[in-house]
Amino acid sequence: MALETGTYISDLNSSNPVATDGLAQADDHIRLVKSTIKATLPNITGAVTGTQAELNILDGATVTTAELNKLDGLTASTTELNKVDGLTASTAELNKLDGVTATTAEINHVDGVTSAIQTQINSKQPTITGAATTIDNTNLTANRALISNGSGKVAVSSVTSTELAKLDGLTASTTELNRLDGVTASATELNRMDGITASTTELNRTDGVTSNIQTQLNAKAPTSRTISAGGGLDGGGSLASNRTISHSNTSSQGSVNNSGNTVIQDISVDTYGHVTSIGSKALSIPSGNTLSTSNKAWTDGSGGLQIRYGSFSSSTDGNQTVNFTSAFNSECFVCIVGGEVLTESVSRTSFVADRDNGYSGTFVFQYIALGR
Description:
By secondary structure, the chain is of the alpha+beta class. Among the domains are: 1-56, no CATH class; 162-192, no CATH class; 258-285, no CATH class; 290-371, Immunoglobulin-like (Sandwich). The chain has helices at residues 26-40, 52-56, 65-69, 78-81, 91-94, 104-107, 117-122, 161-165, 174-177, 187-191, 200-203, 213-218, and strands at residues 144-148, 154-160, 226-228, 233-234, 236-238, 246-247, 262-269, 275-282, 290-292, 297-299, 306-314, 318-323, 332-337, 341-346, 350-355, 363-371. The strands form six sheets. The protein has a five-stranded antiparallel β-sheet, with no helix packed on it. It has a three-stranded antiparallel β-sheet with strand order 12-15-14, with no helix packed on it. Strands 1-2 form a two-stranded antiparallel sheet. A hairpin with a 3-residue loop joins strand 14 and strand 15. The longest helix is centred in the N-terminal third of the chain and has 15 residues, at 26-40.
């Protein structure tokens, strides 16, 4: 049986084993193949993912391991690497970039420079002098007009660029303009002041006006308008001066001052409300009411109603005559006794009381009587 010997894949004979070899020698061939593969690829410890085309790229390569190791850690893309395609700069020229920290944008600042930059810089003014020294290293307040200060240096005015723009087309004089410091009106609005002769005091009289002045004036009454007094009135005249309207003095009735029992009863007035007559009447007023506590009697001053009151002591049942402390002038109408006591009869001088039989012993009863 044919069985070659070899160390690497290139030592294998592709004609072995022959057709006449026995199956018992198959293991020898397999072990030979495995040993040559491992000897040929001793450092392959995992799967190789490169394609045939990718591996064939190395066919004929003369690059050394050291040179290939320079690609270790390379992050540049193919597009970036292709930028060196056709590069003619020498290594010395490329090495001039070694240590450069300027950005691409900063390097591009030399684009368009036509001669040595330092030579050009040396030919420029080294420092700012004169009026511009106030703005050599700081910004001015934004949107302000420029002026020269007391030292002749550039400075900003209190007038803004917006306010300055309002002077475009202005025809007012310097004196008129000097009155406008801080004014926010437009140039068109300011031009309305040109030729105005009214004083500040006169202009201020429009303060508080809420609508067209002439329209308001036209709605007012002219001084030629007159006021006429109606019936029973005096006064009137044109609106050229103040006017007073008053009642005409047509009343002939004098004042009435009554006294005693005389009072005013009737008052007559005319169609204008003027008093034309006053009527009086004397009242008949009786003398005052009287109360006599000693006689236990009250008498109406007109001589009408009278009242008698008092108390009496009763010790037995049956009828008992009780005399009034003072008699009525004419008659007694009624007499009321407190407690269980009936009034049997009354007269102008007394009444008869009947005590209830349920009482025993001595009791004091109150009474009140009405009469005249």
